Amino acid sequence: RGGGGARGKQIQQLAVWEVEAVAGLPDGVHFVPQSQIYHVTDLAALIGRSSRDVFEFIRALKSGRVEHDGEIRTIRPPEGMQPPPQVLAVVTEI
Q1: Cis, peptide link before residue 83, omega less than 30° from 0
Q2: What is the pLDDT of residues 11-68, one digit of tens each?
Q3: Spatial separation of the C-alpha atoms in residues 22 and 12, rounded to whole Å
Q4: Which candidate in 1, 19, 47, 49 could, as Cys together with 13 as Cys, close a disulfide (CB 3.0–4.6 Å)?
Q5: Which of 35, 5, 4, 9 is nearest to 22 (CA)?
Q6: 12: alpha, beta or left? (left if phi > 0; alpha if psi -120 to 50)
Q7: 38 φ, ψ (degrees, to nearest 5)
């Protein structure tokens, strides 16, 4: 994986969950560089990319300026899903 793909192109892959809302975290534990677009990066699914690439990719995707000739798949919860998907997070600082 991560080697030459079709026509010798480098295989690249990002997998990310964008967080729509954050509630209940004290102000002091927010990660300021990520607070504009909270997301969770699936590190095991990164191929030929870095976790640092994710923020710029999400920004480009939201603005419609993604320069990518492969597949981009977005999976959304069903409209009106009740309760909406939730994730319980534990914040650990080192």
Answers
A1: yes
A2: 888 888 888 878 888 888 877 777 788 888 888 889 998 888 888 888 888 888 887 7
A3: 29
A4: 47
A5: 35
A6: beta
A7: -70, 135
Strands (E), the chain: 16-18, 39-41
CA 35 – CA 16 distance, rounded (Å): 15
Region of 87 please: left (phi>0), alpha (psi -120 to 50) or beta: beta
For residues 66 and 72, the answer to whether their CB atoms sit within 8 Å is yes
Reduced to 3 states (helix: H, G, I; strand: E, B; else coil), residue 79 is coil
Identify which has the larger pLDDT, 61 or 92.
Answer: 61
